[in-house]
Amino acid sequence: MSEIMKVNGKLNGINGKTPFLIGVSGGTASGKSTVCKRIMEKLGQVNMDHTQRQVVCITQDSFYRELSSAEILKAEKGQFNFDHPAAFNEKLMEKTLLEILAGRKCEVPTYDYRNHALRPDDSIIIYPADVVLVEGILVFYFPEILNLFHMKLFVDTDSDTRLARRVTRDINERGRDLDQVLNQYINFVKPAFEEFCSPTKKFADVIIPRGADNTVAIDLIVQHIREYLNNCQKSDSEKNLRHVAVTRTNSGEAHFKRQH
Ligand SMILES: Nc1ncnc2c1ncn2[C@@H]1O[C@H](COP(=O)(O)OP(=O)(O)O)[C@@H](O)[C@H]1O
Ligand SMILES: O=c1ccn([C@@H]2O[C@H](COP(=O)(O)O)[C@@H](O)[C@H]2O)c(=O)[nH]1
Questions:
Q1: Ranges for the Phosphoribulokinase/uridine kinase domain (predicted)?
Q2: Whose CA is nearest to atom 5 of ligand 1?
Q3: Fewer CB within 10 Å, N or C, the chain?
């Protein structure tokens, strides 16, 4: 296997398929996952076998670090700060993204929000793809990770809307009660958004106001990705043609010229 090297924060000299890496950031419940889902839907990637997908999506939540028992007790009372950069294992995230950029198959655990823990037994296999979407509140916070993205999107949804959505989602899907959601939001989520997430908006290439409601922005992004995928397909078939020509020449059965 070739060694993965970085020059100026970008990959250099790697073998295999190097995907186009798109970071999708924004505050909690801004619609990051929904925007990624819309992009995947519009590109016809959702009802497709995982091994065949040209576009895949992963979440930063898969890189929450393991908590100690004392931290889990705090988390159960809504007293652990999951919005601080220290809550993440950014080194593991960087390593995984480098593997993905090197065109290697990776395994990424899912996150269990009810138990505040990763589920390694329920991991997702990320097969080599042409485009990889990486969504999360702090994907632009760590410079080593920020520098890996070829395109950066920031989902900018008004904070009242985000809080309203978070309350509903956390109660219905993440096993929380109202007091817990509001206390966690006031004590950790909102201050951390202002200190760590919001300042990273300046790194974005495209800001998407109103998230998934902004179909114009989503269509433009989808168009850009579609053009990229078409170019990938063109260069793949050119590579295949070259391969056929060289193989036949080597076998001595035909005398094609090497194509460039
Ligand atoms: N445009 C929208 N209109 C209504 N509800 C939305 C919209 N976008 C997202 N939601 C809902 O808000 C919640 C948070 O959205 P999600 O995409 O998971 O946000 P994030 O990934 O940023 O946390 C989910 O329950 C989702 O269904
Ligand atoms: O155990 C946990 C882990 C995370 N959270 C909250 O989740 C959000 C990030 O996820 P989004 O889908 O982007 O909202 C973050 O604000 C954490 O506070 C949690 O509550 N419990």
A1: 21-216
A2: 165
A3: C
